[in-house]
Design a protein that fits this description.
The protein has 357 residues and is α/β, with parallel strands linked by helices. Helices cover 25% and strands 22% of the residues. It folds into 3 domains: 52 residues, no CATH class; 159 residues, Vaccinia Virus protein VP39 (Rossmann fold, 3-Layer(aba) Sandwich); 102 residues, Rossmann fold (3-Layer(aba) Sandwich). The longest helix is centred in the first third of the chain and has 18 residues. The radius of gyration is 20 Å and the shape is globular.
Amino acid sequence: MKHYREIYRVEQLPVFQNRMFNTEYEAINCGKGDIYLVQSLKTGLVFNKAFQPELMLYDTDYQNEQAGSRVFREHLNSVKRLIEKHFEGHSLIEVGCGKGYFVELLKESGLNVLGIDPTYEGSNNSIIKDYFTPNIRIKFDGVILRHVLEHTQNPIRFCSKIRDANGGGKIYIEVPCFEWIIKHRAWFDIFYEHVNYFRELDFYRMFEKIYEVGYIFGGQYLYVIADLSTLRVPQRDADDVITFPKDFIDTVSQYARILKHKASKSIAVWGGASKGVIFSLFMQRHGVDLKIVIDINPAKQEKYLAATGIKVHSPTEAMKHLSKGADILVMNSNYLSEIIDMTGNQYNYLTVDYGTI
């Protein structure tokens, strides 16, 4: 490990947070892997050194679509405005377009865009159901990588394959913000699917020419628009040493202690995606018996969460089991106002990411 500094370790997390399971047994016995988060002393990049790419197979059981939320659609519209600002008149490809919502949003605005993703389930001829490889043989002026780069084992090599396949062009990259994770002690935002964790500084080292960089979605996401032809291997400065706060995971035991004193059947976790999966698992490991998880994505409802095997309910179904004033643990505070509106403001809403449990 002389070329790396270990900064965080957690064992036996589900390899997929957003893969849904038809039975509790399948969910509990899903594939699992370890996280040894390290910083490279050469590049400064942070990644999971224990990651095993052979465990990752994305298919139609992978459900990560968030566009059912009004709040997230507003976020996507803000991203669309960035794309229109920097890519007007460009032919575009969204690599890792998921279920295709953003591709269709861009096309509705008159942009020339294709998508590619092995988890795609629709029938849009502008979306290729496959992984991106240099053999795709499609020329485009610009590339969109929304929440893809954190999933790739070698992000520099991955970007270089896109560059070499096309000879350059502009690229829009959006990833979770590592600074936000550290600041908010967001241990529930570190999981196996995400191999890499990026800071703004990393992108300035990765690209010689950057057009714009910023923070969106309440600071949880970091975006960069760069010249793909200027991609380079980053070099760490000697004084760039990442350390987690000593109290980074203190809220795990704090939350567990508080929740044990509550009636677990009257508590609901709102969010059956990555945050909710990891939060529920850590609570379960600390003896908290959570029974209700809520998600507005129909593809998740009536299915079971990875590792814990907790059943996912629709808001309507979950409310049948919750008494007025029950606690709802909101995994992502960006959605708080939307959740309050959907449930008639009749519960006690606790935002996990801002520590209000």
